[in-house]
Amino acid sequence: MHLGLIGGIGVAASLVYYQRLAARVTERGGTLRMTLVHADIQELIANNLAWNTQAQAESYARHIETLRAAGCDCAVITSIGGHFCFPETEALSSLPLVSAIAPLDQHFARQGLKRVGLLGTANVMRTRLFGQMKQTEAVAPDGDLDAIGKLYQDIAVTGFCTGDQRAAFFELGRRMVEDQGAEAVILAGTDLNLAFDRDAGYPVVDALDIHVDLLADLATGRASL
User: How confident is the model at residue 125 (pLDDT cuts 50, 70, 90)?
Assistant: First the structure.
């Protein structure tokens, strides 16, 4: 299957998607067929903060049409925060759209986890992954979600995580585990792998990895749309 990725939201996340997807497909003995288009992270941030789902969906739809013209069989949004307009995008898309949130929900259900903590954009945390988690309860950090979201946004835009930013996110996750009963913390921001590049001292699940596993299965024929 020829995968179509909407990248650039942000660039660091796109590179990690590409790197991990190529590795997973190789592990499965397959050959990766993939096309990547570059979206505008500043447009995404503005639409997300304004909750302008239709405008972002229309922007995605134009990128998806480019992917369709390139011969892709499906489209992928390489940003968890970018899923805020998933239903609207799906309605406009000229290709099947492969969600990152649905397989994450299914993963936790298979693991028997009942409550997980969220780290990501302010709207990801505030809406508990846009209400797209159906089988697992998600909790957000106590505190100013806009400030936490801005902290994440800074990492996504620069593609770099400082020691202070890493320490802040580690502490937010620890408090959700110890004070709010989270059984694991979801990195629900694609660029958070830049912060959690070492052991945090509690269970962490990178949403990107779950999505990439599904995409690798699709690419190699182990799964179907």
Answer: very high
d(CA 190, CA 78) in angstroms, rounded, equals 7
- For residue 155, give the 3-state DSSP assignment: helix
Strands 74-77 and 2-7: parallel
Confirm whether 2-99+209-219 and 101-207 share one CATH topology. yes
Is pLDDT of 12 > 90? no
- Residue ranges covered by each domain of the chain: 2-99+209-219, 101-207
Pick the CATH number of 101-207 from 3.40.50.300, 3.30.450.20, 3.40.50.1860, 1.10.3660.10: 3.40.50.1860
Q: Which residues, 6+ apart, have CB-to-CB distance to 84 below 8 Å?
A: 48, 51, 53, 56, 123, 124, 127, 130
* 10 pLDDT above the threshold of 90: no
Is the Cα dihedral 127, 186, 83, 95 positive or negative?
A: negative
Taking CA atoms, 185 is separated from 9, 41, 77, 182, 207, in Å, by: 22, 25, 22, 7, 10
2-99+209-219 folds as Rossmann fold (3.40.50)
Going by the DSSP 8-state scheme, the letter that residue 120 receives in this structure is: S
Look up residue 108 and give its two tokens.
């936790």
Q: How far apart are CA 164 and CA 113, in angstroms?
A: 30
Q: Beta-carbon neighbour count of residue 1 at 10 Å? A: 18
